[in-house]
Specification:
This protein is α+β, with helices and mostly antiparallel strands and about 140 residues long. The chain is built from three helices and six strands; from the N terminus they run ααβββαβββ. Helices cover about 25% and strands about 30% of the residues. Strand 1 and strand 2 form a beta hairpin.
Length: about 140
């Protein structure tokens, strides 16, 4: 499936902006083989808000990260992906948010989201076991 079809199918299934972001998170998780996907969007001044989560959707719009906080904050600032094949929680930028997702994240891919060269947020794909095929960065 090409990217255009991927996004068009998500648009067809969504009836609101929140539903669209949640549908994209689910599709990204499935397409990548991740166990969970979080989409965090810029809410101004570089801070991020959890817009969609396949692991803890009850926290959508309720979790906010200050500028530069955690792996997602770093990716948002630098616009460079961070890929960790195993031992993700040992990464110096990793930040745990107890009570939101208490499962251990073993591997992750934090990818910048851009529109017309402008950063709009980060997609965080997580695995609960090692993710072979990723290159650690």
């Amino acid at each position: 499936m090409n990217a255009q079809t991927f996004f068009l199918q998500a648009l067809v299934h969504a009836d609101s902006e929140d539903a669209l972001v949640s549908e994209l998170a689910q599709r990204l998780s499935t397409a990548s083989g991740a166990d969970a996907c979080d989409i965090l969007l810029d809410e101004g001044q570089g801070s991020l808000v959890l817009a969609a989560s396949t692991a803890a959707p009850e926290f959508n719009q309720r979790v906010r990260l200050g500028k530069g906080i955690g792996i997602c904050g770093k990716v948002h600032e630098t616009q460079e992906p961070i890929l960790v094949q195993e031992k993700a929680e040992a990464n110096r930028f990793f930040a745990r948010y107890p009570g939101i997702d208490d499962r251990t994240t073993e591997a992750l891919a934090a990818l910048p989201l851009e529109v017309d060269g402008q950063s709009i947020g980060v997609s965080l794909l997580r695995k609960y076991s090692a993710w072979k095929g990723l290159v650690d960065r």
